[in-house]
Amino acid sequence: KDRDFCLVSETNLHINGHFIGKSKKQGLKRDFTWVQSIGVQFDSHKLYLGANKVAKWDDARDELSLLLDDQPIVLQPGRGVDWESASAPGLKISRLQDANSVTVEVAESFVITARVVPITAEESRIHEYEITEDDCFAHLELNFKFFALSPQVTGVLGQTYSAGFKSPVKVGVAMPIMGGEDKFAASDLFAADCKVARFAGRAIESVAGHNFPEVACGSGSAAGRGIVCRK
User: Fold this and answer.
1) Three-state DSSP class for 10?
2) How many Å from the N-terminal Cα to the C-terminal Cα in the chain?
């Protein structure tokens, strides 16, 4: 918790995630963690998507923060509302609901679906998260779709698209862990300084137009133990 990790690193795309969480309970080896925000770098641009800190959740109130190159994006309320960037050609953001759910698209590169959700009192009770009334741990549920990746793509998620990748995760155990903290830890949400970073701010060796499988990441696993990503 309270750390930044590289999710995807490519020559012209770098995505870090910031994790929030609750300290591990006695007897557990891992903290409970959720993705609070992501920092997306493409070309010379920096895009921030993050869930605000919220005490009491209200579905009607928008708790999604968006910034492009450190400037707030003003996205009007209402399902279906679109916003297109004048400074970053090809960048389009669309609301999927009246609040807290958007798609972010950069033409011929990626589509990210982001939804802000809280940890409910019922989830906290079932999974013993011990969520208190001062913070409902609003976080992002994410879906990634990529259109141009090279065989050398890396990152916690990106590595799964690389040629010859074999998952080290033991699926049958109660809490499967991929590992790799030493390779994927970053010093900041927009720092491309993890050991395996490939970001150069330009397209090199991309396989454009390929239909890469989508990845969905969220905390909705039946066991309720940490973030789970599935293709």
Assistant:
1) strand
2) 24
Chain centroid to CA 88: 21
146 CA to centre of own chain: 14
Measuring CA to CA, how many Å separate 71 from each of 46, 47, 65, 174? 10, 9, 11, 42
CA-to-CA separations, 137 to 6, 20, 36, 38, 171, in angstroms, rounded:
21, 8, 8, 15, 27
Q: What does the pLDDT profile of the chain (231 residues) look like in tens digits?
A: 899 999 999 999 999 999 998 876 666 666 788 999 999 999 999 999 999 999 999 999 999 999 999 999 999 989 999 999 999 999 999 999 999 999 999 999 999 999 999 999 998 888 888 888 999 999 999 999 999 888 889 999 999 888 777 777 766 666 666 677 889 999 999 999 999 999 987 655 555 555 677 777 776 544 445 566 766
Distance CA 7, CA 25 (A): 26
CA 6, 229, 140, 40 dihedral sign is positive
- As a whole number of angstroms, the distance between CA 94 and CA 101 comes to 9
Alpha-carbon distance values, 52 to 14, 35, 43, 166, 226 (Å): 22, 12, 27, 36, 20
Q: Give CA torsion, residues 101, 106, 107, 113, to 10 deg.
A: -30
Domain boundaries, the chain: 3-75+114-186
SS3 letters for 83-127? EECCCCCCEEEEECCCCCEEEEEECCCEEEEEEEECCCHHHHHHH
Q: Are 108 and 208 in contact (CB under 8 A)?
A: yes
pTM given for the model: 0.86
